[in-house]
Amino acid sequence: MVCQHKCQEFRCFLETVSRSSVAMLGKLMSADIRFRDPIHDVRGLDKVQNVYLRLFDMVDSPRFTVTHSACTDDLCFLRWQFTCRPRLFGRGHPWIVEAVTALRFDQAGRVREQADYWDAGQHLYERMRLLGPVFRFFRKRRMRAVQAAPLTCP
Known about the structure:
This protein is α+β, with helices and mostly antiparallel strands. 34% of the residues lie in helices and 36% in strands. The protein has one domain: Nuclear Transport Factor 2, Chain: A (Roll), CATH 3.10.450. The chain has 5 helices and 6 strands, in the order ααββαββββαα. The protein has a 6-stranded mixed beta sheet with strand order 2-1-6-5-4-3. The longest helix is centred in the last third of the chain and has 17 residues, at 132-148.
């Protein structure tokens, strides 16, 4: 039940995150937290706070919506959707990213590890003017190969 309660606390933080609420991460995370996603791999509360703060520098109207959660022992999974309007490219068009976060808690009930899983190729690189066509080409090629391959079990 501790995991379920802590998972709910983090869910509330995520769904209401703002530039000012990032300071609250010290109540939810351990000082030596490790944060990983397709772009970052940082350790330490101050570095994780910087990751969240940079988000507000890069996009307008960021919003997380958690759609599912599951907990067991010291591990919690959150499935979420992130919507925003990027400032640097794709300006004006809302972006939607679907992802999963895995949270591990320490003995005190603080998050000691946060790993966010999302497809940077599809949700970021494909939307860039120069890289986009290359990434879309390889994704379509990979999908054709997967669809053509017979499904076998060992």
